[in-house]
């Protein structure tokens, strides 16, 4: 399947199983062939420009040498930068060396001070990188990152942890590629945390390995197919009651903006009726969005309503009581922002959440996730997939761990990484809009897992649509997201209808 993600350990096992039935060096040659074709595509009309190929001491370097030999065979001026390592190289990599050295490939052992490269191929380190990149290799990575030409990473951008998307540290560096061709299965680390910046566009090359050799994936990349079956054209004979009520609970004194943004997200996400139940007396109505109905939270009836709790809620005793009441209710529930922090500080509230029968979704950003798990943000970000899964297991809720490449974890441990969105979303209030969109999908009877995957995808796609129209990433505002999300939703519905 196109969206399957594997761990490094799984890729090693796939490689071993595949090698067993093949003559030595076959996979490396196939990797070199596929990557050279990709390199030629990237060069396009600029085939007369020289290509710099960085070859490391292991098999990633072997792939690079195969690429260089293939490019030279195609008439491209290819130069390999290679420094021998301490260890003996593998037989496959040795053959690749011999092949490259017997042709027209040029070899250098240090980077020239300047060079007008048409493309750089990064074959320094792949899934075998075991410690931070230092010394001469570090200088090479830094020099490549300062270049303006396209950079094609082989398998994994050198320096990146292919499982977690973290730069291997402490104090490490990673190549920032424009493109990555990854072998024998896509890898989670290319799609979350630093992965998206480092890997650029990812192409998966299975090297002819039979699908029967593939294990069940450790995670999936989010796609519209994962939730498309929930999208349906609206029946003519429908009314506002057909699409559910969302009530956003929050809005302590001076913090009315956050619940209003969430409520707009819910309205444009298709909920039939949207309420904002404020802890303190807030605005009587939203003049931009007069469709929203304002209530006071005290005594507000939850029956038959999907609840989005937390935006701008604060941590007062009243907030805590409201949260306890929401957790104990039978309503589908989305828990965000201050409500997450309150649960992190209270084993009692955590137990109420874990004991819920109705659908529950939690949308922590990394700091909120850290508070929930009693860890530092650094620990959460060092392995976002593990953190999201741990929260889902502890809370028995669906979790969206937000950030670049949001990780959606289900209580049964299943993981999805959301591929949509961009840095324009790094603006105050965009998380509130996500909470509202997810609330709207829950209110339209989507199961929690699909609502979370769908909301993250639609929210990110809305930001991508805004960027495509010149609205961001710089200066994109959260208030612009709901209408863009509506456009994405209607496009999706039109596609499946
Ligand atoms: N085998 C196959 O069939 C296929 C393999 N494939 C390819 O192989 C790649 C995996 O190859 P790999 O296992 O050799 O690891 P790789 O990423 O080259 O790095 C390990 C080398 O780096 C060294 N080293 C590590 N850290 C270091 C550091 N910080 N600074 C300096 N040195 C450091 C380490 O030596 P060490 O010093 O640790 O003893 C070792 O020499 C994979 O990503 C894919 O591209 C594909 O062709 C498909 C078929
Ligand atoms: N670089 C990025 N790429 C993709 N999505 C991002 C990026 N930065 C932030 N986001 C998304 O933007 C939202 C930010 O939410 P959050 O951190 O709660 O902010 P706020 O509390 O201000 O609303 C999340 O959905 C997050 O996944
Ligand atoms: K690499």
Describe the protein's topology.
Elements: E1 4-6, H1 8-20, H2 26-43, E2 51-55, H3 59-73, E3 78-82, H4 91-102, E4 106-108, E5 119-123, H5 135-146, E6 151-154, E7 179-183, E8 186-187, H6 195-199, E9 201-205, E10 219-221, E11 245-250, H7 257-268, E12 273-278, E13 293-296, E14 305-309, H8 317-328, E15 333-335, H9 337-344, H10 347-354, E16 360-362, H11 366-373, H12 377-382, H13 384-395, E17 398-401, E18 407-409, E19 415-417, H14 430-443, H15 448-468, H16 481-496
Parallel strand pairs: 1-8, 2-3, 2-5, 3-4, 5-6, 6-7, 7-9, 10-19, 11-12, 11-14, 12-13, 14-15, 15-16, 16-17
Antiparallel strand pairs: 1-10, 17-18, 18-19
Helix pairs in contact: 2-3, 3-4, 7-14, 7-16, 9-11, 14-15, 15-16
The structure holds ligand NPW, adenosine-5'-diphosphate and potassium ion.
Residues 15, 19, 27-28, 31, 56-61, 63, 85-87, 125-133, 137, 154-156, 183 line the site of ligand NPW.
Can you tell me about this structure?
The chain is an alpha/beta fold and 497 residues long. It has 16 helices and 19 strands. It has 2 domains: 215 residues, YjeF N-terminal domain (Rossmann fold), CATH 3.40.50.10260; 273 residues, Ribokinase (UDP-N-acetylmuramoyl-L-alanine:D-glutamate ligase). The strands form 2 sheets. A 12-stranded mixed sheet has the order 8-1-10-19-18-17-16-15-14-11-12-13, with helices on both faces. Helix 7 packs across helix 14. The two termini are 24 Å apart. The model has no long low-confidence stretch (mean pLDDT 96). It binds ligand NPW, adenosine-5'-diphosphate and potassium ion (K). Adenosine-5'-diphosphate (ADP) binds next to helix 14 and helix 15. Potassium ion binds next to strand 5 and strand 6. InterPro entries: CARKD (IPR000631), Nnr (IPR030677), Ribokinase-like (IPR029056), YjeF_N_dom (IPR004443), YjeF_N_dom_sf (IPR036652).
